[in-house]
Amino acid sequence: MDLNTFEALKREQESLQLRVAEKEGALKQLLEQMESEFGVKDVPSARKLLKRLEREIERGSKEYEKLLAEFKTRWGNQLEDNR
Questions:
Q1: Separation CA 53–CA 15 (nearest Å)
Q2: Nearest to residue 46, comparing CAs of 59, 60, 31?
Q3: Distances in Å between the alpha carbon of 5 and those of 8, 11, 19?
């Protein structure tokens, strides 16, 4: 290996180290944001929270559809008459 090749490899290695440090900093910042906004400290906890919230949304959507159907059954005719 000649000096030019060595220097090129060294520059590339330094560049990669910098990129890794930037990515680690971004990850740390995102983990801190997850903890402050959602109270979770790691990705597995965030996934668990996400699944729970998705279930809550699904239950809420089903409840909404049920109540909307009941409302239409009870008031649908009167609403149609007022048009």
A1: 40
A2: 31
A3: 5, 10, 21
Q: Supply the pTM of this predicted model.
A: 0.66
The tens digit of pLDDT for each residue in 36-55 reads 999 999 999 999 999 999 99
pLDDT reported for residue 82: 67
Q: Annotate the chain with DSSP letters as a single string.
A: --HHHHHHHHHHHHHHHHHHHHHHHHHHHHHHHHHHHH---SHHHHHHHHHHHHHHHHHHHHHHHHHHHHHHHHHHHHHHHT-
Contacts of 56 (CB under 8 A, 6+ apart): none
Residues 6+ apart with CB under 8 A from 5: none
One-letter amino acid for residue 31 of the chain: L
